[in-house]
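We modelled the chain as a single entity of 96 amino acids. Its sequence is:
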Amino acid sequence: MKKTIASLFVLLLATAAFAHAGHHHVYGTVKQLTADALLVHTREGTDATISLTKATLYKRGDADAKRADLVPGVRVIVDMTTDGKSAEIVKIGVGK
């Protein structure tokens, strides 16, 4: 019985990890916004330049936000595309 429970637990963990595989997130604060990119000072202390496309979505909680809401100092979580090359969703004003 213990082996069965342990096996199910391992299977559930593997399934959860696979379902989220390929997604990368950037956590930090906006440092600069340009015409086609967002510079984020990450919580790890480095700067990350993230490409913004016409397909990038902007959110504040569950509501839609605007690109113009990306002002220096605001906290963001950026959900990257599966290829890791551009932003899929920029969540504004969240995280620590």
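As a brief sanity check on the tokenised model: The radius of gyration is 17 Å. The first helix runs from residue 2 to 19.
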